[in-house]
Every structure is written in C-alpha cells, then in structure tokens.
Amino acid sequence: MTAWLWAFYFAVKIFLHFRGAVRLHFLWNLGLFFFVMPLSPRAKPLPKPWRALRAAASVVLGFTLFWYDSYLPPFFYSVRFVLKNPAVLSSGFLNQFLAGFSVHLGLLVAFVAALASFMYAGRRGLFATPFVLMSLLLVPVQSLRQPRDAVSAAVRDFYNSEHARQVRLPPAAGKPFDVILIHICSLSWDDLAAINVDKPRLLEGASYVFTGFNSATSYSTPAALRLLRAPCGQIAHSALYDPWPADCGLLAQLRTAGFKTYAALNTEKNYFELAADLQRLAGLDEPLSVDGLPPKLLNFDNHPIYGNGDVLKRWWQARLRSGAPRAALFYNTVSLHGGVHEDKPGWWKYPQLPLYVKTLDDLGADVDALCAAIAASGHSALVLIVPEHGRAIRGSSVQASGLRDIPMPAITRVPAAVRFVGPAFTGTPIGGKSGKPISYRALAQLLADALADPGVAADPTRLAKAVADLPETGFLSETQEWKVFRFQNAYYLYGKDKTWRPLPADAAPTAAEAQ
Prior knowledge:
Blueprint: H1 2-19, H2 26-36, H3 48-69, H4 75-84, H5 87-90, H6 93-98, H7 105-123, H8 129-136, H9 138-143, H10 148-163, E1 178-184, H11 189-194, H12 201-204, E2 208-210, H13 220-228, H14 250-256, E3 260-265, H15 274-282, E4 295-298, E5 304-306, H16 308-322, E6 327-333, H17 353-376, E7 381-387, H18 409-412, E8 416-421, E9 432-434, H19 440-452, H20 455-458, H21 460-468, E10 476-478, E11 483-487, E12 490-494, E13 500-502, H22 511-514
Parallel strand pairs: 1-6, 1-7, 2-9, 3-6
Antiparallel strand pairs: 2-8, 4-5, 7-8, 10-11, 11-12, 12-13
Helix pairs in contact: 1-7, 1-8, 2-3, 13-15, 16-17
C-alpha cells in the first residue's frame, strides 16, 4: 500500500511537470524512486525499526524534493527571509500571501479520485514500480526537444553586446531644467489589466508612454541599481553588486553635467537597507528626512509609509532654497507594495485592490501637483516615471499571485513614461506611445538628447524621431536564482536546476502583449 502512495506522489509531480506548474528534476527524482519504491513484488520488508527510519527519511526527502521541484524560492532563502523579517508572521501579510495560492476545485477532485484509484490498485496487490518508472522516463524524453544550448549561447551574446553599449550625458545646454526620477514599487501593465485601468492618472500628462519597457528584475534594490546604472548596457544580476565603471553611474554623470542631486523616499531612510545599498553602490545622496511628516499608510510589517505629496513637496521646497540652476531627484515610493494597508485592525480581511486603485490615483495626483508647482515657479523639469516591477496581482501556474522571486514578463513589463514640464518645453506633445522593446539605457539616451538640446522635446516631430531612434534591448529579466529570456519569439526560464526550459504558456505574454 505504501508503494502506491508513493506512486501517487510521483504521478502528481509528473502531471504538474507536464502542466508547467513544477520542474521535475529527473535524476534527483529517479534517486528518490529507487529509495522509496520496491524493486520486486516479492521484496522482503525491512525489520520494523529500520522500516520506521526509512519511512521518516522518505517523507523528509519527498518534501524537500517537491520544494526543490517547485517554483518556490529556495527553502533556506525563505527561512532566512522570515528570520530577518519576523513581522511577516505576526502581521496580516501572511494571511494575504497564503490567499494567493488558489486551488482549482476540479483539479482537486481529480487528485482525490486518482488517490482512491491508486489505493484500490494497492489493495488488489498490483505492482506499482513499473508504472512509475515508465512515467518518469517521459520527462527526459520531453527535454530532448528543448533548445537549451542555443538559448544559453543567445544569452551570452546578449551580455557581450550589452557590455559594449554606453550613453554619455553631455554638459547641459540651452534652457535649464531639472531631472526627476519617480521610481515606483509594484506597478506593471498586468497589474493595470487586473484592476481594469487602461491609463491611470499617473500617465495622463506623459508625453510618451513606453509599453515595451522591461525593468529587468522583480525586486526593488536591483531595479534601483539598474536605473541608476542606466548609461551602461544591461549586466547580470550578480555584477550589479560589483564596483561599477565610473561612466556607468547616472548620478555621477548628472553631477558632471551640472546638476545638484537629491534623494528622497516615502519610508524611513534605513528601511530595508535600500538607501544604504544605493549610497554604497550607486553614489546616492543621503535621503531627505521624513521627520515630522504624518504617516499615511503602513507597510505589510507595519512600518510607516509617508504621503508621496508630502515628501515631494518637502523636496521641492529644499530644491528652491538651494538656488541651484539645475537639480536632479531620485524618488522611491513603496505606496503600492503588496501588504500596504490602512492603520486598522484586521486589515487583511478586507479587499486590497480598492486601496491599491485609490493609492495609484493619489500618486498620480501627487505627481500632477509637483509638476504644477514646477511650472508655476517658472522652472522646467524632465520627469521620468519608472516602476521597479509589478505587484504580481495575478499569478500563473509557475508562481502564485503576490510572489515575485521569478521575474515573469507580467511582472517586469512596466509602464515607464516621460513627462516634460515648464517653459523650457513649451509645445511638447502629450499622449504619445512607443511599443519598442527598451530598458534603462533608452531612458539615459532620451535624457542625453534633451540635455544636448531641450528643443528636441519641444518639437513634436523631433521628439517622435528621438523616441523612434531609442536603442532597443532584448528581453532578459533576472533575480538571484532565476532568469527569463525571450528567444526566437518564445520565453525560456532558467532556475534552480541551472537549465533553460520553455516558460509555460499561461505565464508567457501573448503575441500582442510581447510587442
């Protein structure tokens, strides 16, 4: 009977593997198969103490291997995250997170029926081992058709090509303007589709919205590092934390071009060590203090989140007091992060999307207010709106909603935009759209074009040409463990097994979305 329980275990994993919900690692599972399955119908049982020890070891190995086969983050990584952030266990965020794992009722019924059938076969004395072995052998047969080597070679070519690409910001010329980077946590095109918002207020005043922008990662610090490294081509995730070439730092280039630089966050500056990492690696300024500002929301771990309008207004006042002819701001907001809530007990019991929609609209109003204040003062600004990654409101067979460890296209395709404000850009068009596949280097090029001649942005024809000429970047997104790469119009996933495999169909963009 135990053999048929293990047969059910393998049957479920094989089914989920071909469905795309797990990646069954053949050799490891073959090893478990030989450990737990009888090799002969007449095999003698082990002595009772050894039988109990083997059963316990089998359960531990089976659980461990199932976790490894899944798309969940590595087990010890998950444990370290919880130990480092114990508030996730005591807050309602855990309740909200678990709600992201949905079970299809029909599939559950099918599993129960299959288990009953397997148990019946065990009672009839049927030998399970040959059926399990033959089913397992289907996995390597399937993998023979996958172009792993070709994908690996294409990724190497991608990195080699990106390594040689660089944008140099020229000295600022013409009418002065400020540069404002609005870096937004948790906003993707897929999130907008999930809340049925085609064009949020945040994008309404944009001269151009970039529908093909790839943030290249699904976590905050790597996204900020990539934005602040925009003048150079895309590098591997691990290389982000190595010393950068001097010409790759966006802030350093802006300072050289004549800008006084600032940083601001709508959290406490030491929260999650984001600012410290950016100061160490990207030359970020000390973030403006939020002391005295009233918290507007609470994050999933109950840390305060301050109003975007309040923080941006504080920066604008500091910028005016400085008297600098040109200023640049890096502003990071986490107001849309998963688990953000109002200060009320049992917040996780209430629907979260209405608050997300309202907070997104409020953010758009706050950016509008900043732009209006800039224009009213007689100053000008180039405002870049760049989400870090999506919130993962909708999940897939690969990853539950709310999880972002795997940088799925639905998470890293984000609504980047550029907005020109003030008298330096009189006549700039509004409402343009570009679907080119671009990433951060294109934003650096657009900034370089405006610095060389602000008149580019004020002339609809010249601006359209500048946007059309922006450098393209192929789709490659990555985190510490995972990569997603577009190759020959298909998407491939590289993960814990260090192998490229096709991304399941329900997790890959449609042809229209990929344009």
